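note to self — DONT lose this again. spent like an hour looking for the file last time. sequence + predicted structure for the chain T wanted, 120 res
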Amino acid sequence: MVPSAPARQGTVMQERKPGMKGLENKGQGDPDGSSLLLMLVAGSLLVVVVIFAVEAFYLAHKRAFEEQASVGAYSELQRSVEEQKKHLGSYSWKDREQGRVTIPVDRAMDLVIEEGLSSR
């Protein structure tokens, strides 16, 4: 090994082999233009593929969620309406100590009409 200049501290001297003229810096430094272009194209394609995959995943799950939510909301609404009909159409105690009761709406309207006609 023949150093061309004095070795600096912390550097490793590379041995020059026959037939390796000009190749001692291969793999070091800036990449050439074609490598940059290839990396740019590959990276761009990867980004586009990921965007389409995420969008497809989102749309598939959005449809499933909307179907589930609409079925759930409809059944919740149905249950609520049935509960209200049951409450409005039945007799029950509101407060036993005070003697207050709830009566069906139809019966309450009849009582209001009777009381209204009899008070005249």
